[in-house]
Amino acid sequence: MTALQPLTFPNAIPQELATIGDWWRFCVSSLVRADARFGQGTFDAGEDAVFLVLGALNLPLDSFEQMKNFALTGFERKHVFNALRRRVVEHVPTAYVLGFVEQMGLRFSVDERVLIPRSFIGELLETSLADWIEDAEAIDSVLDLCTGSGCLAILAAHAFPNADITASDISADALDVARGNVSLHGFDDDIEVVQGDLFAGVGKQKFDLIISNPPYVTAESMAALPDEFRHEPTLALAAGDDGNDVLRRMLKDAKSHLNPGGYLVVDMGHNRDIVEAAFPALPFVWLATEASDGGVFLLRAEDLA
Question: What digits encode the pLDDT tens for the residues 231-243?
Fold first, then answer.
């Protein structure tokens, strides 16, 4: 098989690309030729191209099969072309190009001030952590640490309708984005957004549930990040030599912020082995999702020192 030649992106809009399907195919080949990287809300070139084309056209992201034979106007072709140029020439993640991402059927505004939402915790919140929490309506308080865009806090507000939700982050820039998303989803009265380094913003408050997708990228992995991931804030990614710097501090103080019988649920990505090696005495329960069987751990308040 002949190898694909490196990407030379056209200077003008290819007029022969008429339909959504045509533009999807062109996006896929362009992404492949550009050696684009994925994992920031999409998993491969085909999925990323669907997101880019339909997102740029303000069409539902699940409508590709219905829409693929529809022809684009000149204005629409220009819009998709310019979005694709940023994606493959500048290696800007599609979510940042479009200014939004969808998780668990909800849309969240994002820009380069926040990590692109992709936590496995989102899937667990869709079922209100049903394997561990018998009555979602009995949860009175939830803390989302390292909230970033606020997406998990918002998903938690849907999952636990009677809970007071607190969303905390060290970054003032990230919290500006989070407040916008909280307002967008109509939770201004239900979600309190606070600034602080881990628990510093919540005083002595205790919670029934603490969720977090903290920074966990190791120093070695940070040095090897693809261009797309370098658009995300370093503060939301880097966590020291072994990726556990933030987690160490979280585990040290979490028990004092959990009610009896409460839970700590943390997404550590692909770092399960590193986490277990660093904290061999803790009885981590790793929660399975469709995307991962070892990315998110659960600890009970009683498990913590």
Answer: 999 999 999 999 9
